[in-house]
Amino acid sequence: MLGLIMERMDDREPRRLRDLRNLGPASERMLQEAGISTPQQLDEIGAVEAYRAAVAHDADPTLNLLWALDSALLDIDWRTLPDDRKTELMAELRAGLSDAYPDDP
Questions:
Q1: How many domains would you assign to the chain?
Q2: How far lies 59's CA from each of 18, 34, 45, 100, in Å?
Q3: Among 38, 40, 46, 101, fewest CB within 10 Å belongs to which?
Q4: What is the pLDDT of residues 19-75, one digit of tens each?
Q5: pLDDT tens digits, residue range 80-104?
Q6: CA–CA gap between residue 47 and residue 31 (Å, rounded)
Q7: Residue 7 lies in a domain
Q8: Quick check: is 37 in a domain?
Q9: Does residue 94 lie within any of the structural domains?
Q10: What pLDDT score was predicted for residue 105?
Q11: Which domain holds residue 86?
Q12: How many CA atoms lie within 13 A of 36 on its CB side?
């Protein structure tokens, strides 16, 4: 996905997470504490895994972070992320939880 961002930014490759659309210093700090420090790393693991990593490192993000991460990779405003995409992200997030806790109902 980051390839799309790179194309739109011409020759200016984002070097910091906060250089991506929708991400600011607080989001960057949460991700860095979770071991994600570059836009390339975010692109490699994706929005859902980055969100999980933030949660696992004692951050208390809202779902707005998940929407912002996915939208950053798509280079769109997070408020315009389609509802069907949010549904897909939530399904992916839940799937990971059921994999981690297979005996839970």
A1: 1
A2: 17, 9, 18, 19
A3: 101
A4: 999 999 999 999 999 999 999 999 999 999 999 999 999 778 899 999 999 999 999
A5: 999 999 999 999 999 976 554 445 4
A6: 11
A7: yes
A8: yes
A9: yes
A10: 45
A11: 2-100
A12: 28
